[in-house]
Amino acid sequence: MSEISEMSDQGADKALLDVRGLTVRFGGLVALNALDLRVREGQIFALVGPNGAGKTTLLNCVSGFTQPSAGSLTFDGVDLLALPRRQRAALGIGRTFQNVQLFASMTVLDNLVAAQHAHLRANFAASLLPFGPAIAEDRRARAHGREILELLGIARYANAVAGALPFGVQKLVGVARALALRPRLVLLDEPAAGMPQTEVAQFAGALRRWRDELHVTFMLIEHNMSLVQSVAETVSVLDYGRKLAEGTPAEALANPAVLEAYLGSAGAREGAHADAHAER
Ligand SMILES: Nc1ncnc2c1ncn2[C@@H]1O[C@H](COP(=O)(O)OP(=O)(O)O)[C@@H](O)[C@H]1O
Ligand SMILES: [Mg+2]
After folding, report:
1. Count of Cβ atoms closer than 10 Å to residue 161 Cβ
2. What is the pTM of this model?
3. Which pLDDT tens digit goes with each residue over 195-237?
């Protein structure tokens, strides 16, 4: 192989998010077991696997809600584990939550505006600015918030009280809130859960546009396999905190071990999970 093609191979392999040997223990339970993953810039990377596989735990490690017991995590070459949660957000890592977490009594648009203000303040101490610029900042945050809601197809809810909306719409508002902060990497925890299938297709289109036009990288935890298959370049399958399979959606989901993990009877699996998680 020539030197040039080796160099370009390295470029193509360069990870935006590099997870190595990541291990998380909760008492005797091993939620992540020496996990290795690489997410390239501009990729929609799907993380799938049965409940309890460790998917949310991985997101929590990246965003700074959980400190791993061992391993390393780098984002664009920066050691994430040395940084507190706020600094990870300031680097451009956004996330959504499996159970949403909006300001329930505020409108949808105000949720997006509040998030942008908090983010600006954390990053640039903007609260020290005099009043005039703060008003301009507010106007910009509103305009940007509306734009995001339109791109996600939920602009009609801008003035609705967030807590009163159906769960599926609240999940989309959570995605909008993460995207409003102009992140480089967004971690989405089951965004399509509770979303009507008619809106899933529109959501898939919005994700692709964000990736293509704004070069945002996504790590997507999702049980909705039609969404995974329509947007993800790479699918990684977790089970018991380990990687079972990885590849294109067709490759990863056709793997016999993956079929077994998904199709094994629920009762048998619960017992098996407890056994496999217990440390000797
Ligand atoms: N804070 C915690 N304390 C103790 N156990 C936890 C905690 N968070 C997750 N777990 C356990 O770790 C395992 C992985 O959980 P999780 O990452 O939420 O799985 P997934 O998102 O794939 O469904 C589960 O067995 C879960 O019960
Ligand atoms: Mg989860």
Report:
1. 16
2. 0.85
3. 888 888 888 998 998 899 888 999 999 999 999 999 999 999 9
Residue type, 56: T
Pocket of ligand 1 (CB under 6 A): 26, 29, 31, 49, 51-57
Residue 194 token pair: 């509770």
Distance 3 CA to ligand 1 centre (A): 45
Dist CA 162 CA 212 (whole Å) = 29
The Å distance, Cα 65 to ligand 2 centre, comes to 13
State the Cα–Cα distance between residues 190 and 62, nearest whole angstrom.
Answer: 16
Domain ranges of the chain: 16-92+184-280, 99-182
| Rounded Cα distance, 196 and 155, in Å | 17
Class (C level, CATH) for 16-92+184-280: alpha beta
- Which ligand is in closest contact with the Cα of 65? 1
User: What is the atom index within ligand 1 of the atom nearest the CA of 24?
Assistant: 12
